[in-house]
C-alpha cells in the first residue's frame, strides 16, 4: 500500500467493500480505505491499468444519434449543463489570459460545443478515439486523442483548462495538475469538479453512494482534500460551487435506484421494449426531480454531492 496522496501517511483503515453497482462490469469486491491521519478515501489495492480498463464499458460517454429520444436527451443535457457553462464562462472572463479552453476528458464534446457557441476558442482531449471523433462530428470541437502529459500544446498557451469528473479516475492526480499548471497562461483558470465525499449523500448512503463508483474511482475526495492537492501543485483556489444541476440530483437518483439509470441500462444492454424503456425513463426522471430539494439543501450547507473549484497558478 502506497502512502497517502494528501498527507504522506502510511496508515489506512478499511471503510467498506463494494462492487460495480452501476454497470455490472465485474462481481469482484473492492475495498475503500481511509487515511488514519487526514481522512482521504481511496480504493485499495488499486487495480493495474490493464485490469482497470476492463471496468470502463463501451459508450461510457453520451453519443447522440438522429433518433427523437436521442435529440430529447441532448436537449436535456444542454439544459443541465448550463451551470457548468456559466461557471467556466465567469472564470474565463475574470482572467487576463488569452488562448483556448482545454477540456480534459471531453467525451462527446457537448460542454465544449456550448462554450464554442458562446464565442470561446475550445479544444478537447480524450483517451478515446471514438469519443474524440464524436466531438468533431457532432459538436465541431477539435479533439485530440492523448493524455495531459503528452498533449500537443505549448506551455503557457491556455486561457483555461477544465477537468469534470476526471481527478478521481487518476492514479496520480498530482501529475495531471502539474501538467495543467504548465499548460496554463500565468493568469489562466483551472476548473475541476469531483464527487464530494464530505457530502450528505456520501455520509448517509455509504457504499451505496453513486459518487464512489467502485471500481472506477481510485480516490474519493472531500472538498478539503482537493483544495490541499491544488495548493500543493501551485494553485490558488478562488471559488467553490457545491451544486450541479446535471450531477447532484441525478447522482442521488442513481444511488437509490441504479437499475433505472438510463446510461447504465444502455451500457448493460438491458433488454426492454419501447414501452418498458419509456416507463423506466419517466420513473428515473421523477426520482431526479424528487431529489432536487435534498440536493439543493446539502449544497446550501456546502455539503453538496459534487464540488467544482476555480483556481489559478500562483
Automatic annotation (TrEMBL):
Cross-referenced Gene3D superfamilies: Vaccinia Virus protein VP39
GO function terms (MF aspect): methyltransferase activity
Biological process (GO), any one: methylation
CDD domains tied to this protein: AdoMet_MTases
Source superkingdom: Bacteria
Keywords noted in UniProt: Methyltransferase, Transferase
Keyword Zinc: no
Coiled coil: none
PANTHER family assigned to the protein according to its UniProt record, in alphabetical order: TRANS-ACONITATE 2-METHYLTRANSFERASE-RELATED
Name of the molecule in the record: Methyltransferase type 11
Source organism of this protein record: Solibacter usitatus (strain Ellin6076)
